[in-house]
Write a structure and sequence with these properties.
By secondary structure, the protein is an all-alpha fold. It starts with 22 loop residues before the first helix and ends with a helix. It contains twelve helices and no strands.
Length: 281
């Protein structure tokens, strides 16, 4: 158990909590915290071609920003049911993370041959593959992937690890993002349960997808900016897609770890532990 105050067996200082985490669970929460609060998509993408993301974004034609965001919204809306429809309910030994990286690498290589138009055509495919990979991780962490709540939690992952222009420090943190989306989540769960998951399935669903897609679109813009660099070939585009998949797998593993711990300890307690880690950082 992680006691209130003192150090754990790894020598890390643990501040007082209202009750005790099991030590492995607190280490899992610590790992999730660092993944969620220190995402490295931009740095990883920049390392592919040695060009900072901010410079690459300046080269991206402005009209394409709007197209990427619009395409992201449509891709999210259409991909979820396809991605989870064939999944079994029972928990498997592990998610096939490397398998999905290979698939998105292949789709990225094909899309990379055709520049930005190729990315728009390829995006629905890679989005479906990413959601499938996210859903397998959710199942790994004890979620029922055929429940509406879990399916919406899967697309919530697209809002993590990215920033929007309107963000401030509180809003861009993990719990800040979840709180911002919670306005739509509960109503969307009821609506989707009754009507199904459709882009035109109702105002609440549209608003939820739009809020998530606005953040997902930032990540897509970063990906597109790198892919228009002259040195980026189809092979490099495949690498970019692999990094893209790895990023969202990391976000998914952290997100569903937190949700698993919330089911075990209660949301308020896990959030208190999460905020303790934030204070220590």
């Amino acid at each position: 158990m992680v006691e209130t105050g003192g150090k754990n067996r790894k020598g890390r200082v643990v501040k007082s909590l209202p009750m005790a985490f099991e030590e492995d669970d607190f280490e899992a929460l610590r790992d999730a915290y660092y993944r969620l609060e220190h995402p490295s998509l931009a740095a990883r993408l920049s390392n592919v071609v040695g060009t900072p993301i901010d410079l690459a974004l300046q080269l991206l034609p402005k009209p394409w920003y709007r197209r990427f965001h619009k395409t992201a919204e449509a891709a999210i809306a259409k991909a979820l049911e396809t991605a989870v429809s064939s999944m079994r309910r029972e928990k498997c030994n592990s998610a096939h993370e490397n398998y999905y990286k290979t698939l998105v690498a292949g789709s990225g290589a094909i899309g990379g041959l055709f520049g930005l138009p190729g990315l728009l055509l390829e995006l629905p495919i890679s989005t479906t593959l990413i959601i499938r990979g996210i859903a397998e991780i959710a199942r790994d962490e004890g979620e029922d992937v055929h429940s509406t709540e879990t399916q919406l939690a899967c697309i919530e992952v697209f809002a993590l690890g990215g920033t929007a222009e309107s963000d401030d420090a509180a809003e861009s943190g993990y719990y800040g993002i979840r709180f911002a989306l919670s306005t739509y989540m509960s109503a969307a769960i009821s609506h989707v349960a009754a009507q199904g998951f459709k882009a035109d399935g109702g105002p609440v669903v549209i608003q939820l997808i739009s809020a998530i897609a606005s953040r997902f679109g930032v990540a897509i813009s970063q990906r597109a900016a790198i892919q228009i660099m002259p040195v980026v070939s189809a092979v490099s585009a495949a690498t970019v897609n692999t990094i893209f998949m790895q990023h969202f797998q990391d976000m998914a593993r952290a997100h569903f770890t937190v949700r698993r711990l919330e089911r075990k300890y209660g949301e308020a307690f896990v959030r208190a532990g999460y905020e303790t880690l934030r204070e220590q950082a």
